[in-house]
Design goal:
This protein is of the alpha/beta class. It contains 2 helices and 5 strands; from the N terminus they run E-E-E-E-H-H-E. A hairpin with a 6-residue loop joins strand 2 and strand 3. It binds zinc ion.
């Protein structure tokens, strides 16, 4: 297997092409806030945190967009505390109903797992 080149984006290392929207692998491991999946695949976005956008391998799945919608709804409006806690319970139940095997991870190369996961 070919060795995968990993970039340390915390040190502002990027592929030489510097092309916006080019995808590459990072030393950092990122955890999706929506589904908890791990990835080190990112896309170059100049004006974002660390200059990259993380790509969740479950992004295209319907359950992922349903969860995302719920989380965004929860985060973006002021809701009464009881509503929030009900909503959180619902989200946890939704995640519980997703079989583990369909929550895929996307790690390539040998990233630094000791660094701890960064959320995206
Ligand atoms: Zn995800």
């Amino acid at each position: 297997m070919a060795k995968v080149k990993l970039y340390n984006v915390e040190n502002y290392e990027y592929p030489r092409s510097e092309k916006v929207d080019s995808r590459f692998r990072t030393v950092q491991v990122f955890e999706c806030r929506i589904c908890g999946s791990l990835t080190n695949l990112v896309e170059r976005i100049n004006d974002s945190w660390l200059g990259v956008k993380q790509i969740c391998p479950n992004n295209g799945a319907k359950w992922h967009s349903d969860l995302k919608e719920k989380r965004q709804w929860l985060d973006s409006y002021p809701h009464p505390a009881t509503y929030k806690s009900e909503m959180r319970k619902e989200i946890i139940e939704m995640i519980g109903e997703i079989p583990d095997e369909i929550i895929t991870e996307d790690i390539a190369g040998n990233p630094d797992m000791k660094k701890g996961k960064l959320f995206f």
